[in-house]
Design a protein that fits this description.
The complex is a heterodimer of chains A (229) and B (607).
Chain A lengths: L3 E5 L3 H13 L3 E5 L2 H10 L4 E4 L9 H12 L5 E5 L4 H9 L4 E4 L4 H19 L7 E4 L2 E4 L4 E4 L2 E3 L3 H12 L5 E2 H7 L6 H18 L6 E4 L3 E4 L2
Helix pairs in contact in A: 2-3, 6-7
Chain B lengths: L1 H9 L23 H8 L5 H36 L25 H24 L3 H7 L7 H9 L5 E7 L4 E6 L22 H16 L13 H12 L4 E6 L5 E11 L2 E11 L1 H50 L18 H50 L7 H32 L4 E4 H15 L5 E5 L5 E4 L1 H18 L6 E6 L5 E2 L3 E11 L7 H6 L10 H5 L8 H11 L3 E6 L5 E9 L4
Parallel strand pairs in B: 7-9
Antiparallel strand pairs in B: 1-2, 1-5, 3-4, 4-5, 6-8, 9-11, 10-11, 11-13, 12-13
The chains are: A alpha/beta (229), B alpha+beta (607).
Chain lengths: 229, 607
């Protein structure tokens, strides 16, 4: 079945470029220039995935509002923020509003496609029973690669796709140090070192919400990170 | 300033070496200060006593001329009262010392009579001598003193006080003498006369001053006398009066007292038979003048002290306000031109208050402009990201299109360009992001030796062609830092070192915890240094400092062409992190002159 992707982006060229690229990948894509326009369409029919820009013309934080409304309409709908803003504040705000991922606009189309595919895969996997060989057990951690879900001490940790692959990279070989380049490759990220640091910080925070004394992720300064066995 | 650098970069020119303005606190030397100037100007106040004393001097001159007129009138009056009085015999008397005998034929009667008269005169003389108020004057006159009872009585009744009054006959014999110059003697400090006030309080304090000043205040008299014996002068004046010439003369006695002598002739019918001479000192007027001078000095001194005191207080308050303003203005903007504080609000409504407010507004505007410039990079990177996304997504789409293989290289080149552009953009926002990140950075206890050691191992893995040497003067050294930021700082410094290091030379990292300078009570400093062989720093010390400013790069042209983008932000970030840890970063050439050393001193509490 053809997946329906909505792109809400005020810049016509970018909207057209992404639409074309995703259409070539076999998706059905509809583009919207403003929050209002998008909401009108969403009320009639929800897309299977939404890519939202934060700044929508005059509506500086229109993307955040849209994400909030959309999340209200459908708790399970995958939402990706695609924004020119790359500061921690916006990333954290976006993810807190329930977005599944946050990519900056200098992401390449293949990377964007990989994210979208991963999100759809997770969506599909949630409907399937998990297979034993796709589940990694590391002490208190349970990692389901098919569902892209993580449990720590039997509690689900809500991670974005990027964060999931980072954890996956660390956990695959417990005790091995993964440097920033490796983590970036695993998570199919094209961002600078700094973003890895803030991703790691966020991942730690998410684990700490469940377990205040969480310290399984160890920073090896100058080298990278490792999952403590 | 930063904008200039930025435009220099943006237009592709070489990064301009804009020197930071060194707004070092300038101390004003006292002699050049407003205080000194106002104090000097207030010395004009000293004119007040001078003017006062000039006035007193005028007064003294006026008094003196008054005294002269009074004395002249008095001498005329006495002369008039003695004139045309036949009963008063003022004709020359033959003294016992060979004066011609009245009876030449030697009549015994006459001789007896003469002897009797002489005896009577002698007696009179002796009586007068003992009754004289100035016996020594009388004594020095000797036989020339031939007093006439009537004359003396008239003289005594004439009421001339405060002086001597003489009657001298035509042959220069003194026929009458009354009064004394010492009735109101010269005002000397010793032997205070009864009439003069005892100096008290102020006068006592002022006595030395007035003693210095009085001679200048009193009008000068040109003729100075060597001694107090004025008899010859009196005689000379009397002789001139005897030829009909009235005169008034001022002389100065040795004890600095002016002496007035006036003379007038005594007539009998048409002949001048004698002369009256009045001598007077100016002592009484002098006391008036002195009192006036003292009052003037006292009052003007009080006025001077009060006005001067008020002025001093006023100018010191002004100067204090000004220097406080200077201090605040200096503190508000640091040597790099960054706004580090603000000038507090003032309620003063005068010009200095207005200046204060103007400076305050200026600093606030500067702060606003600075933050605008600081955000410019971030904002610019944000704005640039959208067009880069357009180009990139277009290129990505193009890659899937049917393009002849020969033309793929153009696509690859375009990709490369976009990648570089997007690297520049992320670096531009990195500094701003870092500032934000530092605000939320958590300090924790970390072994700095292990931290740097770990980083070095990481660099060795990443840069395989480079050799890294690491040494520390201690095995373990726990400090309170934000470890992520320290690692980021090392990254930036290592990047810099690698870019400049000569091929095949090692890069040396050192942690110095033992030798570091103590930094007060909190703990000790930890120094991390990175050395590399290669080109030296720019010669100018200002340029070296500027290395750590935003958007400053001192790379030579050939360096600038190598790999990716250098915005001069790396060392700026390193500085921000060092400053976050209350530390400093500096660059210096190696002593051997074959490389450079960047060292960071972190001031952090040691565990």
């Amino acid at each position: 079945m053809q997946k329906n992707i909505a792109i809400v982006e005020d810049e016509a060229t970018i909207r057209a470029n992404y639409s074309d690229a995703l259409k070539r990948q076999g998706y059905h894509v509809s583009g919207y220039a403003s929050r209002h326009e998008a909401m009108q369409a969403f009320k009639t029919r929800l897309p299977d995935l939404a890519i939202i820009d934060i700044g929508l013309g005059e509506d500086i934080d229109g993307g955040f509002t849209l994400c909030h409304d959309l999340r209200g309409m459908s708790p399970g709908l995958p939402i990706i923020f695609l924004s020119a803003r790359d500061n921690d504040f916006d990333i954290v705000a976006g993810l807190r509003l329930g977005a599944d991922d946050y990519v900056t606009k200098d992401v390449s189309l293949p990377h964007l496609h990989a994210r979208i595919a991963a999100l759809f895969r997770r969506l599909d996997a949630q409907r399937l029973p998990s297979r034993a060989e796709d589940v990694l057990h590391r002490n208190d951690l349970v990692l389901d690669i098919n569902r892209l879900s993580v449990c720590w001490k039997n509690q689900a940790v809500v991670l974005t796709v990027t964060e999931f692959w980072m954890i996956h990279a660390l956990v695959k070989f417990t005790g091995h140090v993964k440097n920033r380049d490796q983590l970036m490759r695993e998570a199919e990220l094209t961002v600078d070192d700094n973003t890895i640091t803030s991703h790691m910080k966020r991942i730690r925070k998410k684990f700490e919400l469940i377990d205040p004394v969480f310290d399984a992720i160890e920073t090896v300064y100058g080298m990278g990170y490792r999952w403590r066995a | 300033m930063r904008l200039k650098r930025f435009t220099a970069w943006a237009t592709g020119g070489a990064p301009s070496a804009v020197r930071p303005i060194h707004a070092a606190m300038k101390m004003v030397p006292f002699f050049a200060s407003v205080r000194a100037k106002v104090l000097a100007a207030s010395l004009v106040l000293l004119l007040i006593p001078v003017v006062g004393l000039l006035f007193v001097r005028e007064l003294a001159i006026y008094l003196r001329s008054g005294q002269e007129q009074v004395a002249t009138a008095a001498v005329r009056l006495v002369a008039a009262s003695l004139s045309d009085r036949p009963e008063i015999n003022l004709r020359a008397i033959a003294g016992p010392t060979g004066a011609p005998s009245p009876a030449a034929d030697g009549a015994a009667n006459a001789a007896e009579l003469a002897a009797a008269v002489a005896t009577a005169l002698e007696r009179e003389r002796i009586v007068a001598f003992f009754s004289a108020s100035e016996p020594e004057t009388v004594a020095s006159l000797g036989n020339n003193y031939q007093p006439n009872k009537q004359v003396e009585r008239i003289l005594n009744q004439s009421g001339v006080r405060g002086g001597r009054i003489w009657v001298v006959d035509a042959v220069g014999q003194v026929r009458g003498l009354s009064g004394s110059l010492r009735v109101i003697p010269a005002t000397k400090d010793v032997g205070k006369p009864a009439g003069e006030q005892q100096p008290r309080g102020w006068s006592l304090l002022l006595a030395p001053i007035s003693r210095q000043i009085m001679p200048h205040v009193m009008p000068m008299v040109t003729e100075m006398l060597r001694d107090a014996d004025t008899i010859p002068l009196v005689m000379a004046q009397a002789q001139r009066a005897a030829i009909g010439e009235s005169s008034a003369r001022w002389r100065m006695l040795p004890d600095k007292v002016a002496l007035l002598s006036v003379a007038a002739p005594i007539w009998q019918q048409d002949n001048i038979v004698a002369a009256v001479v009045i001598e007077e000192t100016d002592a009484q007027y002098r006391n008036v003048a002195k009192g006036a001078a003292e009052s003037v000095i006292t009052i003007t001194l009080i006025v001077f002290i009060v006005v001067f005191g008020v002025l001093v207080a006023f100018v010191f308050r002004l100067a204090t306000r000004l220097s406080r303003l200077q201090r605040e203005a200096n503190r508000a903007i640091d040597p790099q031109g960054r706004v580090r504080g603000d000038i507090r609000h003032t309620h003063d409504r005068d010009e200095i208050g207005a200046l204060h407010e103007t400076l305050r507004a200026m600093v606030a505007r500067q702060a606003g402009y600075n933050s605008y410039l600081e955000q410019l990079a971030a904002r610019l990177s944000h704005e640039l990201r959208t067009p880069v996304a357009v180009v990139r997504s277009s290129l990505d789409n193009l890659r899937d299109a049917a393009i002849p293989d020969d033309d793929r290289k153009f696509l690859a080149r375009a990709d490369e360009g976009v990648a570089r552009l997007s690297q520049i953009i992320s670096r531009m926002s990195e500094a701003t992001q870092l500032e934000r990140m530092l605000q939320g950075a958590h300090r924790q206890r970390v072994d700095v030796v292990a931290l740097v050691g770990g980083c070095v191992a990481g660099y060795q893995q990443t840069f395989l062609s480079r050799r890294f040497l690491f040494s520390a003067d201690t095995d373990i050294c726990f400090v309170d830092v934000a470890p992520d930021t320290i690692a980021q700082m090392l990254d930036k410094m290592i990047e810099n070192a690698i870019d400049f290091a000569t091929v095949d030379t090692p890069i040396t990292l050192r942690v110095l915890a033992q030798e570091a300078v103590p930094s007060g009570t909190v703990g000790r400093n930890v120094a991390i240094s990175i050395e590399n062989k290669g080109p030296l720093l720019p010669g100018d010390i200002g340029d070296v400092e500027a290395l750590f400013d935003s958007m400053v790069s001192k790379r030579a042209a050939d360096h600038a062409q190598t790999n990716a983008a250098h915005l001069g932000l790396g060392l700026y970030i390193a500085r921000l992190i060092a400053e976050f840890h209350h530390g400093s970063i500096r660059a210096e050439n190696l002593p051997g002159g074959d490389g450079v050393k960047f060292s960071v001193t972190l001031s952090c509490s040691r565990a």
